[in-house]
Amino acid sequence: MSESEFAADATLVIGKITGSYGIKGWVKIHPYTDPQENFLEFGHWMLKRRSGLEPIEFDAGRRQGRGLVAHIAGVDDRTLADSYKGLEVAVPADGLPQLEQGDYYWSQLQGLQVWCQDGEGRVLLGSVDYLIETGANDVLVVKACEGSIDQRERLIPYLPGDVVTRVDLDEAVIEVQWHLDEE
């Protein structure tokens, strides 16, 4: 698949190369997939460089410590493997598995407006900038946006059915049950 065959906005970043591993062209990868090994199942990987997307092939990989290690096809020495450090790895978004009803990819939640029912009505808290994985549950990092109630950044637990009462991708909205006076 060439770079011209899919645009940057049709990709999803699934991990980052964090350094070289050994002397034979292997790299350490911090995967954003859950479970981590799913990173190795995709194929059609693309490197995100300043100049655009570039195909990359991992011809071997395995779990190592807290992340993964993988061999880049055609890269057989540590010096060349080091040159990949810091690059993000993306895949075509249309190649991702369909999720069950009520499950979302993080990228689908980013940018959505977060609304809360207050005693005086519905108020805009901001929009989802990114998410944090804490172990117990994911956390929405909500930053102020045009029309938001104030300029505060909020960390809101992503707990569907409890804190998060509704997600509507078509309306680009997340509704939460959040107590503004407890912040």
Write up what this structure looks like:
With 183 residues, the chain is mainly β. Helix content is 5%, strand content 44%. The protein has helices spanning 78-82, 106-109, and strands spanning 11-21, 26-31, 46-49, 52-55, 58-64, 67-72, 88-92, 113-118, 121-133, 138-143, 154-157, 164-168, 173-176. It is elongated and about 65 Å long. The termini are far apart. The relative contact order is 0.15. Mean pLDDT is 88; it is low at 1-8.
Shape: elongated
**What CATH architecture of the largest domain do you see?**
Beta Barrel
Termini, distance in Å? 49 Å
Low-confidence stretches: 1-8
Proportion of beta-strand residues: 35-45%
Number of helices, counting only DSSP H or I runs of 4 residues or more:
2
The string of secondary-structure elements, in order, is EEEEEEHEHEEEEEE
Main beta-sheet annotation: 7 strands, antiparallel
Domain count: the total is: 2
Secondary structure: number of strands: 13
User: Which CATH top level class of the largest domain fits?
Assistant: Mainly Beta
Average pLDDT reading: 88
Write down the CATH topology of the largest domain.
Elongation Factor Tu (Ef-tu), domain 3
Going across the biggest sheet, name each strand in turn. Answer: 4-3-7-1-2-6-5
| Superfamily (CATH H level) name of the largest domain | RimM
Helix coverage percent of residues? Answer: under 10%
Overall SS class? mainly beta
**Gyration radius, rounded:** 19 Å
